[in-house]
Amino acid sequence: MADVASFALDHTAVHAPYIRRIAVETGPRGDAISNFDVRFVQPNAGEIPTAGLHTIEHVLASVLRDHLDGVIDISPFGCRTGFHLITWGEPAVTDVARAVRTGLTAIADEITWDDVPGVDAVSCGNYRDHSLHSAREWSKHILAQGISLDAFARVGV
Q: C-alpha angle 121/101/23, rounded to 5°?
């Protein structure tokens, strides 16, 4: 089996919340694609409930595209402690963190149910599994802790 960079990370040594560039891959035409670890919860110490994580995903999928160039996808980790963010190019970790903070702040303070994209049977594969209340509470909790620019030390929080 191929080695996966995310599984090589010592999950016991990190200090969430943080943003970490996992890798930059170069395609056959020279295009760079960056993969970021957007970690909101300390691994093996907790997890975001599925409905809240799902709602955070839907809002960030939209808001990040408004505040960060080159967003390809943001997808939740199966462990429910954060997300993979995939982008074209090599955006700075500080720019990713700024966009993520903007998204979480919007969820915590501004977003209403009517603002959450993709929450019906036509646009979501599990539209019944959402919770704006949970997304709002988790966003406030993450913002209160601060998002580090380093996975192993609290930097730039």
A: 85
